[in-house]
UniProtKB/TrEMBL annotation:
Coiled coil: none annotated. It comes from Quercus suber. This is Small rna-binding protein 11. PROSITE patterns: RRM. Residues 54-132 form the RRM domain.
Length: 143
């Protein structure tokens, strides 16, 4: 095999791109050495994106709301895969907000339109698409 300068340059670019994605994958996992399949990584990324697009943030909930009540409240609009209230770690009482995850983005959008601004248990609640960014990150650092 004869290596031309173009062939060497192509191999270097390909190697650099693969290393970039490997390092990016390791950094996003927050761990040391990891070996992973690129196709599986893409599939996991797609699944994660779908899950995040189908996750809603619900605020101003009553402190008496339970996970079961939240799931029942939102299950009219589709299959709820998870309904989770955020609790105070010390008292274990709900903080008044939580997350609802649907199987599809369409179901989540239906619930958002129907439930945002409704009165539930005597409280005006707000529903929005859950923010997928980690604290301290902005949209430009994820590219």
């Amino acid at each position: 095999m004869i290596l031309t300068s173009d062939r060497v340059l192509d191999e270097l670019i390909l190697g650099s791109m693969m290393m970039y994605h490997l390092v990016r994958g390791i950094r996003s996992l927050g761990c040391g050495f990891v070996i992973f399949d690129c196709d599986r990584q893409h599939q996991l990324g797609t699944e994660m994106a779908n899950k995040l697009n189908s996750q809603l943030f619900v605020s101003r909930l009553s402190s008496y709301t339970t996970n079961e009540h939240l799931k029942r409240l939102f299950s009219r609009f589709g299959v709820v895969t998870e309904a989770r209230l955020v609790k105070d770690p010390r008292t274990q009482r709900p903080k008044g907000f939580g997350f609802v995850t649907y199987e599809s983005e369409v179901e989540a959008q239906k619930a958002l339109k129907a439930m945002n601004g409704r009165i539930v248990d005597g409280r005006l609640i707000f529903v929005e698409v859950a923010n997928t960014e980690k604290p301290g990150e902005d949209a430009t650092s994820q590219q």
